[in-house]
Amino acid sequence: MPRVSEPTRPLDAIAAVKEAAVAALVAFGLFVLMIGIRTDQGPTSALVITTRFPLLAKLVAAVFVGRLALVLIRSQTNVSTESLIPASVRTAVAGLVPYATAAFLIIALVVPIVFYSNRYWLDLAILIVTYTMMGLGLNIVVGLAGLLDLGYVAFYAVGAYSYALLAQNFGLSFWICLPLAGILAAFAGILLGFPVLRLRGDYLAIVTLGFGEIIRLILLNWQDLTGGPNGISGIPRPSFFGLPFNSSEHGFAATFGLGYSATHRTVFLYYLILALALLTNWVTLRLRRLPIGRAWEALREDEIACRALGINTTTTKLTAFAMGAMFGGFAGAFFATRQGFISPESFTFTESAFVLAIVVLGGMGSQLGVAVAATVMLGAFELLREFDQYRMLVFGAAMVAIMIYRPRGLVATRTPSVWLRGRKDIPPKLVAEARTESPA
Q1: Which residues constitute the domain of residue 185?
Q2: Which of 89, 86, 62, 84 is closest to 74 using CA atoms?
Q3: 51 and 140 share one domain
Q4: Which of 106, 329, 346, 428 has its C-alpha lying 20 to 30 A from 71's C-alpha?
Q5: pTM of the model
Q6: Phi and psi at residue 39, in whole multiples of 5°?
């Protein structure tokens, strides 16, 4: 007969105080050099050390009291964070996901209309959509195929430099260079895929990290081709079906009878990257329903079982790297044409880490989660720009909280791409029984 596990015994006050003291000690070790001691430039340009021990003491005391209260509440009530939300509310929220996707799309379409006169917010929106597209491309490799890639910025760089070199040296237009940049980036993804066919986990991450650094060093040292640290400037800008965005009589504004404005190009670039991001999302959704998409998900869950089923893991990995790299190359080409200047400093490991954080925090395998995470992370950076000294601290604390309370991401999903006969909902009562029962 199945038996119900006994509830956890409440912790005594001494154990709670010990745990709170450990948390306070950790907080002291983290904050003593960040907040307790500060260096400033003095009148003689020498560094002057100033102390802020009262503020440090307040922060450590707040951590101690907060941890103590949290431990005591959990030990007395034995309530998890998930149980605080009723099952009906969780079901209703899950049903709102399709509507949230439509709401995101509507908001994205009207952003240039609402913020037409505000260049700052338009540039921020372009940046968010660009990182969303990169996150969707990396989501194929990390979220669907389960291959940890720390060098994704390499494909971003290949796409940017491919577009810049092709447009300058051969005089090709943006619409011709864009697919070529994606193809060259996909080829770079295949080159990365071959050496890592037998690697998994940490070893795979180290190799991909090394690949990203190799590409950056090549761009930095091959001065005859890439310009080295000076980069490439004067990259051609895209046109609207041959109409340049300038004040000439053959320009975009004069052709449509509009007053010339530099915002026209910004709006066009926004809708261009939005179309590329939507194309990436649509292709990814279609691929997930194809045999190759199901092979990616099988590889993510268990590579040994995937081999036992007769799936060719070699082609599965290579296609994942190639598809993810291709979309990264598209984003790189857009970055080059938008900036008009590129250099190796724009393609560092920090970019790879940021895009990977978007995929992980949004929910690996979730398309909507990538868009939400990119919006939240970049929007939070801008909202906390005035608190320059503390925004990284707040941002790091928020990421830790998400990993603790939402370990699968903001929009966690493991929904199968294809159902055998039809979707069958499991009643919450059976789920609760399965969690409390254990073998006799």
Answers
A1: 121-405
A2: 84
A3: no
A4: 428
A5: 0.77
A6: -110, 130
